[in-house]
Amino acid sequence: MAPAETITIVGAGPIGLIxxxxxxKSGIAVNVLxxxxxxxxxxxxxxxHWSCLEGLSELGLLxxxxxxxxxKQDYSYVEFATGERIDFSxxxxxxxxxxxxxxxxxxxxLAEIALRKLAAYPNATVHWGVDVTDIKQDxxxxxxxxxxxxxxxxxxxxxxxxxxxxxxxxxxxxxxxxEGITWPKRFVAANLHLxxxxxxxxxxTFLIDSTYGAIIVKLNRxxxxxxxxxxxxxxxxxxxxxxxxxxxxxxxxxxxxxxxxAYSPYRMHQRAATKFRVGRVLLAGDAAHATNPSGGLGLxxxxxxxxxxxxxxxxxxQGRAGDEVLDKYxxxxxxNFLEIVSPAATENKRMIFDTSDPAQRxxxxxxxRNLATDKxxxxxxxxxxxxxxxxxxxxxx
Length: 397
Description:
Mean pLDDT: 93
Distance between the termini: 33 Å
Structural class: alpha+beta
Strand content: 25-35%
Order of helices and strands: EHEEHHEEEEHEEEEEHEEEEHEEEEHHHH
Strand order of the largest sheet: 6-5-14-15-16-13-17-20
Low-confidence stretches: none
Helix content: 25-40%
Radius of gyration: 21 Å
Number of strands: 20
């Protein structure tokens, strides 16, 4: 096989496009392949923790993201059964970071920003409507075989990045298992025109209850909000809008008028590929690991993959590092997901949605109250997401 001096990326979501942007800015030729005809706009990730904003800033994405979305410091935990509300603020991070706030922005909007930035680089091309059919590699390179609007296509390159989501074709073609569990519930992510602040909700509210648990988040500068809740998997999907209406009548009884903008039912997973590197193919984002969305750790974990990967790949392609740094990437990012991201997201899900035992609930609420009164404990909690990042790969053992 005689590969071109190019890197191929499968998947034009935020992970694929931001990886492509980092490589293109480094002077490397990139092909991005996407089976869809454009960026998918269904309800997905929306919150970016303060710790990942420096990476967006480095890539020239943050200013545009803040202009389209907004920064936010306030959030609350509310116990549904008692109405107890505990408020927090990220202002405790002021003086500790350049970015003492979270960013709120739909992941499709972040992908659109990355796509616009990528268009400025003649060494980057996005190919829409391209389905991967096979992957072949040897010691010199890797070729993606695909079918596009005009028929069969081949994309030869030095390296391939699979960023094509939890149902990754790349991962499947590599024969990798996606180890872990799928939760026996359905999540529903609903975008609503309903100003929750009028009814006492913070712009991020974790509503704690085993039946009426929900994560309620303001989506944009207007009145669009996201309400994510869980329901029995056996219930028919076509009944979601009516059940959603009844759910909202319970958690926001005073809100009589709202408009449903979009909703997305989906399964929740805690899974990771058995390997994040096979030869000249690497995985990133949901193609490598998938987590339930409680606490907003999924896409943030994927962004930390990106920040590590594009710099490592650029160094390898440009002869500044050997490809062993890519083994370090694969090992460190898999360890990080299994030891940090997945346990934290699992604990968030348990606390918000799944605990019915009164003693456990009392213990959970005591911990949350402590965060409100102990500044040091709150800072330590907020620092969790910094542990999701990787050190520069050249320093990893």
